[in-house]
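YM 10:42: ABM domain-containing protein sequence, as discussed on the call
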Amino acid sequence: MSVVKFNVLTVPEGAGATLEERFAKRGGMVENQPGFEEFQLLRPVEGNDKYLVYTRWRSEEDFQNWVNGQDFERSHSEGGKGSAHGGGDKPKPAASDSEVWGYEVVQRVEGKA
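YM 10:58: structure's back
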């Protein structure tokens, strides 16, 4: 079964739009990784400051290969293609904290629509 990773980002008030813009321009590098299955950026709606970056992978090994690879480093560099503005001064981070939660998928149901 697949593994799911949540990158839990603490985003200060007023920085959500910046974070969303940076993800929109992230360059799409993860989509081409072996074992990658799904990505979602989840915006908080219930009065907290935590954005969730959801990814699903075929295996823990596939996820670790992504995290330890050059494409991961390039896609997460502040001056890279995925940032709000390339080159010059590094932009201020949109998140003030980050932690990764990992889960193994034991059941999965999809809609029929």
